[in-house]
Design a protein that fits this description.
Blueprint: H1 25-41, E1 51-56, E2 67-76, E3 80-89, E4 97-102, H2 112-120, E5 124-128, H3 148-151, H4 159-174, E6 180-190, H5 192-203, E7 209-213, H6 233-239, H7 263-269, E8 273-279, H8 287-303, E9 310-315, H9 323-338
Parallel strand pairs: 4-5, 4-6, 6-7, 7-8, 8-9
Antiparallel strand pairs: 1-2, 2-3, 3-5
The protein binds beta-D-galactopyranuronic acid.
Length: 357
């Protein structure tokens, strides 16, 4: 169905000049980011610094040994606003831990098994609920009047950009917490939360490691290369118009005419660590086209001498953020943050030998 077979070239600037050295990349990165932000996400909310207010730190209700704190992440635009951030630290005193931030607190898969696993491996977890920034209930562009839409009334941004911006405000607060090692911040999210985590990582260089899980259309999945059963611009902008730039819907049934593709977000993460986790049975999330964005961003990682920081991993099965996906992430974090060689092999193309997407 999709006929165009090439991704926009990342290593040619808007003036037609070839990008051949790492020194040229920051300016090209700015062009790449602006283009995809404008077309897909409607830009980002303005940068304002958030501060943290401790609301509680009682460990008594925890089902395992750990330290728990809840913060109010507060900031101001046209009016003051805040959302909650839950922090789990390994047990004991002091310490200086790498942290995983997730905005998927509104979903229920951060159960004990996942939390315990990451605490045991020496990581902190910072969990917020992105729907506190913009509710994730159907609304059109003309109904955008709650949460962050009110705080920044001149907005053009969609909900995914606002949610991604929430990760950045959590970092403002985490940077002030002595037990957090803010040079080793990872972000993760699943599905719509994966689209969000990828955008967060692409737009904030304080994030050292980005993981998008089953993120699909407008996440890590390609628009120009779609495997069988993949979600299209038509479907996503019909079901979730408020997630995106107002103009994205104009590309319904014209996905292949989009002047951007999602390898641009991946490239904007470079040279920082990037892990895409995919499920082979999750056709709606376009696992085949996600391999294409991996390949598409590769030249930028290579230009920057960071090829070993870009990884993709496919598991069998369906659309979900499973304990085994966290295991894949933690192994990658151990490798990137602690130099522990992975026992698994990343970057294996499961579609090699098949007719390409
Ligand atoms: C679907 C949507 C996908 C993905 C998913 C989810 O309905 O079409 O793009 O975001 O929801 O977030 O679970």
């Amino acid at each position: 169905m999709i006929t165009s077979r090439c991704l926009p070239d990342l290593l040619v600037g808007e003036d037609g000049q070839a990008i051949t050295s790492p020194q040229q990349w920051p300016a090209r990165r700015a062009q790449v980011l602006k283009a995809i932000l404008d077309v897909v996400y409607g830009g980002m909310p303005p940068v304002v610094k958030a501060t943290g207010r401790l609301l509680g730190n009682n460990n008594a209700a925890l089902p395992f040994p750990a330290r728990y704190r809840q913060y109010q992440v507060q900031f101001e635009g046209a009016r003051p606003y805040w959302f909650r951030l839950d922090l789990l630290l390994p047990p004991g005193q002091g310490g200086h831990y790498p942290v995983i931030i997730s905005g998927d607190g509104c979903w229920r898969y951060y159960h004990d098994q996942v939390e315990l696993k990451l605490l045991n491996r020496g990581y902190a977890l910072a969990l917020f609920s992105r729907v506190e920034l913009i509710p994730d209930v159907y609304h059109t562009h003309d109904q955008r009047t709650s949460g962050l839409y009110d705080v920044f009334p001149d907005h053009t941004f969609g909900a995914i950009a606002a949610w991604a911006w929430g990760y950045h405000r959590c970092i403002d607060v985490l940077e002030t917490i002595p037990e957090i090692d803010s040079s080793r911040i990872a972000v993760t999210g699943h599905s719509r939360g994966g689209k969000t985590a990828l955008l967060a990582g692409a737009t904030d260089e304080r994030i050292a490691l980005t993981n998008a899980n089953n993120s699909g259309c407008c996440g890590a999945g390609s628009h120009h290369f779609q495997g069988p059963g993949a979600e299209t611009i038509d479907r996503i902008t019909t079901n979730f118009p408020f997630w995106f730039a107002r103009g994205l819907a104009e590309y319904a049934r014209r996905d292949h005419e989009l002047p951007v593709d999602q390898h641009m977000l991946k490239a904007a993460v470079a040279p920082r660590a990037l892990l895409t986790t995919e499920a082979l049975g999750d056709l709606w999330a376009n696992p085949q086209g996600t391999w294409r964005t991996h390949q598409g961003a590769r030249p930028v990682y290579e230009l920057l001498g960071a090829a070993a920081k870009q990884a993709i991993y496919y598991r069998p099965g369906r659309h979900a953020h499973l304990p085994e996906d966290f295991q894949t992430l933690l192994d990658f974090m151990d490798w990137q943050f602690k130099g522990i060689a992975p026992s698994r092999k990343y970057n294996v193309n499961p579609f090699a030998g098949e007719a390409s997407a």
